Structure formats: structure tokens, C-alpha cells
Amino acid sequence: RIIYAKIPLKYGGIKTRHLVSTMSLPQDLEQLKKELKEKWLEHFKLNQDWIIIWVTKNGLWRPTQEKVEDEILESLSSESQKYSPRTLQSDFLIGFISGLEPALYSLLKLLCITSPNSENIINALELNFDPLVELERRKYTIEDSKVFQEFPVSELDDIREQIKLQNGEIT
């Protein structure tokens, strides 16, 4: 939220001047984390071909303990190799997000000074996830919602009623 002051002008009228920005810190931090995740995923999605080559070639993947649904692991696995969840090395990820969100420069600088452990910073920003897994999850979510959208509520109610009739629940 921004606080403005209304300043009377010498010859009439009022000038509005920005005084201070106030933050609802917990809410703003949660919003920041969500926005960062979305920006990172969007960037990764658009650039995943070269990012995957680059981080693989330079050994910048690290394993993650993220719980992943079996069907998602299956869809990411190849015939010869089961997929293991991974994320990017935290230093590399900090560099990426600072480029994606230049307004974060001061915050990241403060975080790096107070906690030189980049893993802690990435964990605090909740960016310690496998971007391929998250994108695959979203595909499943979109596909599931499309299935439900195919049947209007009235059709679903009709189907439920027919099943109840067949089971003798309705006479």
C-alpha cells in the first residue's frame, strides 16, 4: 500500500506526493513468493530446451526431496531411465530470479548478506522444486479441468440420477 500526501499549491489546487509505502509483510511476502514462482516457471517453460542443456552440461542440477505423484514421474521418465526429481543449483537460481525481477535486487542483497547460504534463500522463497515436475502437474490439472468442463452440471446430475435408478436407490 502507498501513502500519499495532499499538498496545497501556492496558487490553488492540490499536489499529491508519494510519502511512503507500507507493507503487510506476511501477505506481501507470500504474494512475492507466488509471483516469483510463476515468473520462474514461465521463463523456464519458454527456455527449457537451452536451460536443461546448460545446467546438465555444467552439473547444476541437484536432487530434491519433493514428493512427486507416480503418474507424473512416469510421464517424465524415458524407457531406459526413471526420472528423479531435481532442481537447479541455488546460486544459479538466485542469478536467474534477480534477472527476472530486478526489483528484488535490494532484497536479495540483504538476504545474501544475512544468510550467505543460498540454499536457505531458495528454501525461504519456496523455489526449491523441480520445474519440469511442476509444469507437468499443471498439464494434468488443466486436462482434469477440461474433462469436467465437457459435462455441464445438468448432464452430470442426469447421469447421477440414472445410476441411482439403475441401483434401485430411486423409485
How would you portray this structure in words?
- With 171 residues, the chain is an alpha+beta fold.
- It has seven helices and four strands.
- The chain has helices spanning 25-57, 70-76, 90-100, 105-114, 118-124, 131-150, 153-166, and strands at residues 2-8, 14-21, 61-63, 86-88.
- The protein has a two-stranded antiparallel sheet with strand order 1-2. It has a two-stranded antiparallel sheet with strand order 3-4.
Mean pLDDT figure: 80
**Total of DSSP H or I helical runs spanning 4+ residues:** 7
Share of residues in strands? 5-15%
Strands side by side in the biggest sheet: 1-2
Helix content: 55-70%
Order of helices and strands: EEHEHEHHHHH
User: End-to-end span in angstroms?
Assistant: 60 Å
Précis, in short:
The protein has about 170 residues and is α+β, with helices and mostly antiparallel strands. The protein is built from 7 helices and 4 strands; from the N terminus they run ββαβαβααααα.
Please name the defining characteristics of this protein.
two-stranded antiparallel ribbon; 7 helices; single chain; 4 strands; alpha+beta; 12% strand; two-stranded antiparallel sheet
Topology:
Layout: E1 2-8, E2 14-21, H1 25-57, E3 61-63, H2 70-76, E4 86-88, H3 90-100, H4 105-114, H5 118-124, H6 131-150, H7 153-166
Antiparallel strand pairs: 1-2, 3-4
